[in-house]
Write a structure and sequence with these properties.
By secondary structure, the protein is α/β, with parallel strands linked by helices. The protein has two domains: 1-31; 34-270, 3-Layer(aba) Sandwich (Rossmann fold), CATH 3.40.50. Helices cover 39% and strands 19% of the residues. The chain is built from nine helices and ten strands. Helix 3 (119-135) packs across helix 4. It starts with a helix and ends with a helix.
Amino acid sequence: MARVMTAAAVFLFLLVFLLFSYVRVQEKRALFFPSGDLHTLPSDLELPFEDAWVLSGGQRLHGWFIPGAGRDAVLWLHGNAGNISDRLYHAAAMTRELGASSFLVDYRGYGKSEGRPTEKGLYEDAAAAFGWLVKEKGIDPSSIILYGHSLGSAVAVDLALREGKGARGLVLESPFTRAGDVARILYNGLPVDLLMSVKLDNIGRIRKVSMPVLVIHGINDTTIPFSMGREVFEAAREPKAFLPVAGADHSDCYMAGGEVYWGAWREILKKRNR
């Protein structure tokens, strides 16, 4: 009997170990989908731009600085797939509608940037990009909006709590509550989050952000449930605003929202960090 119980315990231990190892390997494969193909350049859209190289934790990051007519600048922290070239049409529309400069930077492992993506690495990359805007371009932190889309929402929240505290405001588009919640959806409710190393915790950290916050979410988002965007908004401090975009999926809020979308951006550009 004792031998049977020992064998069962060993089997259970091996099963848990294998499941743990599988989740740890799969979480990064499921989270990061970088592409090295810069399929569109700012010049293709007749946008003036500057190639930028930022040093982050020993890795060289590549980005594009697109100057606007005004003093404000938007630091783009993009989602988990592709690279900065996938965000150019959106950035072109922002330059046209808001007159703000845009700094699109690829995390390590994305586009032309060196290295491999990790949660900690992405946080470091965002801080380095913010520092580049301040030191190299001479932009006052109070004129910088931190903009995070999808995966980038957690990166932007981290930045707002660290080096980017003095920024004008925080815009989160299509945000999730935490990585573990998304994983549970992908794995049909299984508590795989208990074995994950990646946290990306928006719901727990947004409560500590003191700058103005704008949350934007497509009502028809098929990637991140609309309800998660609402939860993140409700957890944030005042001053804050929430923009549900009818007819929008995960990455087309600016197209579906039109003037309402840009109106919400103009409102946060009017605000000042406390």
